[in-house]
Every structure is written in structure tokens, then in C-alpha cells.
């Protein structure tokens, strides 16, 4: 507007007043160190953090001085600058009381800045917030609807349990007012009050039920949101809201058709052609809560859910949000089988959406569905594997892995593992580690034959051995100990061939080396006659500096030497003796101990006999195997420790055997 018009002059004066600028036609100057706009410019022009801190320190000092001088005329401008400093992350606690003083002012412009500063600078844990309850209550009882709206916004953002109990009567009164603007804000504020003080749920029931009969979209959105929160906090009120089920179905049907004089006839609330998707989503959420555990309610809402699912445009993000909520509602209520298939098809359609967020929520919903009806999700296996192969979003791939392996059964495990094996060439180490863990778990649970189990895990160890977890490797070795000798022979031959093959350099992943060393040490006797067991173990240990691999290798060599002839026994002893001077104390001690053990030919086979069958940890947990009882601490007898060298570790002394 032109400055020479009186209305435009007032408007420009108000804007410059709030931005702390002088008025050009009056030459009026403000007693300020820096205008807000200039402060922002100075901060943005700082090239270093030190320059920015200097500018902020100077302005903070001025603000403290202004607050001490009780500059009432410039208080709201100072609070505006203080909020900017708060946005930058600097301490602004010294201005909290000034916000309370602004709220108590009669001017709406000052109240607005005061409430904005209150919501920005304070939270519900601040003790100073106790002083603002009276000011908010006075504004709630006022006649200016915009001041009441500011008070409701502040209460909805900063309400504590004590404030909720003190102001619940005023909020309920505003919810019964005739002003749509206030009823909408009061309904949303009531959500916060009920969250902070759940005992107030019953106090809001009458108002929440009456607001569901309104026709304003804003009021209905607040009322449905309040109803959802009340049902979540107190499930006993669900039956009372079921009386409004007909109204909710009628409301949703009008929104879906968008014709006539219903709720969806006005285009003011459309989002890219979708009638008020926010209200539709909240109504569907409330219908889900009302339909759970009620076959009658579920049956009554089935038609409108099918209508929403078939008539909503899935090409827009708003339509996808409505379809996703509709699918979740269908899957949770007691709907028919055909309707559930429709919901799964909706989620399958969302899997092909270009937006990663849509695909993620669809995958997350299908993870819950697959545990109930896996056959319906199997139809979308192609889309799931496509999401698994797409590396554009890590969270989507992680959820796709979880869903994909929920589809694995004993009938399709061979084909499925063959398909996902191609993904082991991916460069993402986190994705590869999770994929390898899932493959090992699926093979262990659904392997059709032990031979295929062994071949698949060996292939995983060769392709991505560094990503095989310790738990997966331990589970595979425990599985081998429970198999008959014929299967153990297949396993040890397959692993030994990896080091006997001269066509190329043997793979050297630590997990594969551990597996080879352990299997040759335990099942090497099953290898064909003439197999060089000591040579295999020596080749696996060559160039290895890791203590864990060397420890397993030394034990394997000792076991091979114990069951071999004199020549191989001596070769095994020579390889073990190389570690007598190892810098690792454990390796050195183990090498010396095994060297001494070789001198006792009759005792050696008994000490190094084959390991018995091992039970998997998950099976032990399912069987309820108790843990070993801890040693009972007893006081040491001083007469039994005359030299003072018993219990020197300071730990509890085990109770003597009875």
C-alpha cells in the first residue's frame, strides 16, 4: 500500500514497529543497539563462529540491559530478537519473564509476540510456567476470539498436568461456544490436556460426542482427532463413540463422492483433487479403533471402506495416504476375506510408487500382514524383491529384507535363496551383513536336505564370509555335530576342497578359515585316505596373525596329530612349535601345552577326543535349559589360609562340596 494513505501508513507503521525499524516519514528513532533486520544481516555476514558469538554477545548484553530498565515500549521488539537468538541456539533464559509480562498486556500485537516467545523459549518442564496459568485463564475468559485462540495454542503446546486440571473447565466451555474458530482450537487443545492428565478423558466425552455432529471441516478434524486420542487413552469409551458410527460412515461417504451438498462438495479442502485427505485419514483411524473387537461395527463400515479403496486416486501423495490408512483399517477390523485381499492389493500397489516413503509404509504394513496371511502377500513377491534390489534408500531396503524373508518356506527356500544371492555383490556393508544373516537364518530353518544346507552356507562363506556373524557360524557348526558321519564327510570334503584346489588362491575370510580349521580338526578322519590333513591346516594358518584363528588352528592340529601316524604327528607338532615364541601370551601358552601333550601318547587321544553333538542356543532356550547356578559365596576360614594365598582374586569363594 502507498505510504500516503492512512490505512497503508498504519499498516507500514505496525510492520516497522515489530521489525524495530525507524519510520521514514517521522524520523522517529528507537532506543536500540541493532534493529532486528540488521541483526539478522550481521549474523549472516559473520565468516567465523567467533565473529557470530561476538555479535550475539553484544546484542544479548543490550537485551539484558533493556529488561533491567523495564522498557515496556520496546519489550515486544526485544522478545522478537530474543527468539531469533534462540533459533541460533544461544541461551535465552534471561528473557522468559519478559514473555509473561507481554502476555499480561492488553494489546493483541504484544500478546501475540508474548505467546510466540512463550512457546519458543519455554517448555512444560520450566518452573516459571506455573506463573502463566492465571494469564492464560484470563485470556480464555476474554471476549476477543483471537486472544482466546492464542491462549489455546499456548496451552496446547506447553500444558502440564497441573495446568490441565486447572484450565479444563475453561476449555470445555469454549468447546461449547458458537464460534467455529474457537471450537476447532479448543478440540485440539483438549487432546493435549487429556494426554497430560488421562483422568480428564471422561470430562471431555460430552463435548467430543457433540462436536462429531458439526459440519465444519476444521471442527470435525479436531473432534475426530480428540475422539481417537480419547479411545487410545481409555478403551472403555469406545462403546460410546460407536453410537456415532453412522455419522462417521455418512461423513466419509460424502467425502469420497464429493458431490451434492455433503462434506466434500466444497473444493476449499481438496488437496490435488483429493477431498480433505486429513479428515479422511483421521476418520479411517477412528473407524479402525471402533471396529476392533466388534463384528457388527466392522460389518457396517465394510461398504464405505470398499468405496474408499476403489474410488481414491493413487497417483497423488494425498490419495496414497488415504489408501494406506484404509488398508490398515481393513486389516485390523474383523473384515471379510475379500476385503482383506483388496487391502493387500492396495499395499502392493503402493510398493510400486516412486516415493520411498510410500514404499516404506507399505512394506511395514505388509510385514504385519504376512504373519496372518502369507499367501496374499506372496502375489507381490516381485515388487518386494524389486524394493530389495533398489539401493536408493537404506531404510526401505532394510524393511524389504525383513518382509522378503518372512515369505520363505520349505517349498520355495531354494528358489528364493538363488534369487537373493545376486545381491551379495552389493557395496553397502550394512545391507550385506543383514542380508547374509537373513540367508543363514532362512537356510537353517527351511533347508530341504542337510547336503543343500551345507552347500549353501559354504557358498555364503566364500562369497561374503566377512559378513557372516559369529552366531550364524556357531549355529552352522553345531548343526554339523548333530549330523550322521555321512553328512559330516560331505561337509569336511567340501570345505577341504577349497584349499586343495590349485586353480586359484584360496579365499581368506576369517569366518571361512575358522570353519575349515574347526571341521578338519573334528571330522578330518572322514576324509579319503591319503588326504593331507596337516597340510590343509598349515595352508589355512599360513600368514594368519589373528589370535582367534590361530587358537582354533592349534587345537585342530593337536586333534589331527592325536589320531594320525608318527610322521603326520611330528609334522603337526612342528607346525604347533612355531608359536612357542609368539608375542600373544595365549598362543604361546597353548602351543607349549600341546607340545608337552604330544609326549603323552596314551593320554593324548583321551584329552583331544571328538566333540559331542552340540545343541543350538535357540533350541536350548525353547527347551528351558536352566543356566548353571552361581557359586554360593561363603566366608573364608582364616585358619585354613595360614599362608594368605587363598582367594587372592578378591572374588567369592565357592562353597565346599558336601
**Largest sheet features:** 2 strands, antiparallel
Helix content bin: 55-70%
- Tell me, briefly, the overall form: elongated
Strands side by side in the biggest sheet: 1-2
The overall pLDDT, averaged over residues, is 82
Number of helices, where a helix is a run of at least 4 consecutive DSSP H or I residues: 35
Provide the gyration radius in Å. Answer: 37 Å
Beta-strand residue fraction: under 5%
Structural class: mainly alpha
Count of extended strands: 2
- Ends apart, CA distance between termini: 100 Å
Low-pLDDT runs of 5+ residues are 1-32, 618-658
Explain this structure.
The chain has a two-stranded antiparallel ribbon with strand order 1-2. The protein has 658 residues and is an all-alpha fold. α6 packs parallel to α8, α18 (317-332) runs parallel beside α20 (356-370) and α22 packs antiparallel against α23. It has helices at residues 6-18, 36-45, 49-68, 75-87, 96-103, 108-121, 133-140, 145-158, 161-175, 180-196, 205-211, 217-233, 238-241, 245-257, 277-291, 295-300, 302-311, 317-332, 337-351, 356-370, 374-378, 381-389, 394-404, 413-420, 429-446, 450-464, 470-481, 485-500, 510-523, 533-541, 547-562, 566-577, 585-597, 604-607, 617-623; strands spanning 270-271, 274-275. The longest helix is centred in the first third of the chain and has 20 residues, at 49-68. A hairpin with a 2-residue loop joins β1 (270-271) and β2 (274-275). The relative contact order is 0.03. Helix content is 64%, strand content 1%.
Amino acid at each position: 500500500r502507498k505510504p500516503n494513505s492512512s490505512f497503508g501508513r498504519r499498516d507500514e507503521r505496525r510492520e516497522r514497529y515489530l521489525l524495530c525499524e525507524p519510520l521514514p516519514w517521522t524520523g522517529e528513532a528507537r532506543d536500540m543497539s541493532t534493529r532486528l533486520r540488521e541483526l539478522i544481516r550481521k549474523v549472516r555476514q559473520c565468516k567465523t563462529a567467533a565473529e557470530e558469538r561476538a555479535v550475539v554477545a553484544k546484542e544479548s548484553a543490550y537485551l539484558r540491559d533493556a529488561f533491567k530498565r523495564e522498557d515496556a515500549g520496546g519489550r515486544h521488539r526485544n522478545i522478537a530478537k530474543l527468539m531469533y537468538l534462540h533459533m541460533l541456539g544461544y541461551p535465552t533464559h534471561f528473557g522468559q519473564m519478559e514473555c509473561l509480562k507481554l502476555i499480561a498486556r492488553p494489546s493483541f500485537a504484544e500478546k501475540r509476540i508474548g505467546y510466540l516467545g512463550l512457546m519458543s523459549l519455554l517448555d512444560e518442564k520450566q518452573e516459571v510456567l506455573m506463573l502463566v496459568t492465571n494469564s492464560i485463564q484470563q485470556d480464555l475468559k476474554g471476549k476477543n476470539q483471537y486472544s482466546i485462540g492464542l491462549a489455546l495454542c499456548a496451552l496446547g503446546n506447553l500444558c502440564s498436568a497441573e495446568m490441565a486440571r486447572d484450565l479444563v473447565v475453561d476449555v470445555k466451555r469454549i468447546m461449547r461456544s458458537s464460534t467455529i474458530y474457537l471450537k476447532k482450537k479448543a478440540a485440539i487443545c483438549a487432546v493435549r490436556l487429556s494426554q497430560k492428565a488421562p483422568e480428564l478423558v471422561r470430562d471431555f466425552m460430552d463435548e467430543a460426542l457433540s462436536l462429531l455432529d458439526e459440519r465444519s471441516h476444521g471442527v470435525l478434524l479436531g473432534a475426530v482427532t480428540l475422539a481417537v486420542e480419547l479411545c487410545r487413552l481409555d478403551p472403555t469409551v469406545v462403546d460410546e463413540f460407536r453410537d456415532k458410527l453412522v455419522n462417521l460412515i455418512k461423513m466419509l461417504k460424502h467425502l469420497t463422492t464429493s458431490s451434492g451438498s455433503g462434506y466434500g462438495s466444497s473444493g476449499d479442502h481438496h488437496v490435488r483433487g483429493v477431498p480433505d485427505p486429513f479428515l479422511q485419514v483421521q476418520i479411517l483411524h477412528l473407524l479402525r479403533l471402533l471396529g476392533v473387537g466388534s463384528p457388527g461395527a466392522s460389518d457396517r463400515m465394510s461398504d464405505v471402506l470398499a468405496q474408499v479403496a476403489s474410488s481414491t486416486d493413487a497417483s497423488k501423495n494425498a490419495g496414497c495416504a488415504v489408501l494406506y490408512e484404509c488398508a490398515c483399517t481393513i486389516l485390523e477390523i474383523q473384515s471379510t476375506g475379500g476385503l482383506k485381499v483388496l487391502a493387500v492389493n492396495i499395499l502392493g500397489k503402493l510398493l510400486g510408487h516412486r516415493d520411498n516413503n510410500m514404499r516404506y509404509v507399505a512394506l511395514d504394513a505388509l510385514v504385519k500382514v504376512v504373519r496372518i496371511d502369507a499367501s496374499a502377500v506372496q502375489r507381490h513377491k516381485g515388487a518386494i524383491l524389486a524394493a530389495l534390489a533398489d539401493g536408493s534408500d537404506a531404510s526401505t531396503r532394510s524393511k524389504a529384507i525383513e518382509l522378503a524373508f518372512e515369505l520363505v518356506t520349505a517349498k520355495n527356500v531354494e528358489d528364493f535363496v538363488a534369487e537373493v544371492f545376486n545381491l551379495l555383490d552389493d557395496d553397502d556393508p550394512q545391507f550385506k551383513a543383514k542380508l547374509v544373516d537373513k540367508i543363514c537364518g532362512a537356510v537353517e530353518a527351511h533347508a530341504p536336505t542337510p547336503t543343500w544346507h551345507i552347500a549353501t552356507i559354504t557358498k555364503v562363506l566364500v562369497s561374503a564370509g566377512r559378513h557372516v556373524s559369529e552366531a550364524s557360524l556357531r549355529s552352522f557348526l553345531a548343526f554339523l555335530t548333530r549330523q550322521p558321519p555321512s553328512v559330516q564327510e560331505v561337509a569336511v570334503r567340501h570345505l577341504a576342497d577349497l584349499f586343495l584346489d590349485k586353480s586359484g588362491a584360496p579365499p581368506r575370510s576369517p569366518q571361512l578359515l575358522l570353519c575349515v580349521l574347526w571341521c578338519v580338526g573334528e571330522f578330518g578322519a572322514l576324509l579319503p585316505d591319503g588326504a593331507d590333513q596337516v597340510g590343509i591346516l598349515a595352508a589355512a594358518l599360513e600368514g594368519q596373525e589373528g589370535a582367534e584363528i590361530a587358537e582354533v588352528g592349534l587345537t585342530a592340529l593337536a586333534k589331527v596329530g592325536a589320531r594320525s601316524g608318527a610322521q603326520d604327528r611330528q609334522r603337526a607338532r612342528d607346525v604347533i612349535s612355531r608359536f612357542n615364541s609368539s608375542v600373544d601370551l595365549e598362543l604361546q601358552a597353548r602351543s607349549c601345552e600341546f607340545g608337552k601333550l604330544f609326549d603323552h601318547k596314551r593320554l593324548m587321544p583321551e584329552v583331544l577326543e571328538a566333540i559331542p553333538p552340540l545343541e543350538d542356543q535357540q533350541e536350548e532356550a525353547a527347551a528351558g535349559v536352566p543356566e548353571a547356578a552361581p557359586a554360593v559365596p561363603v566366608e573364608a576360614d582364616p585358619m585354613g589360609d595360614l599362608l594368605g594365598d587363598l582367594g587372592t582374586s578378591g572374588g567369592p569363594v565357592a562353597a565346599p562340596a558336601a
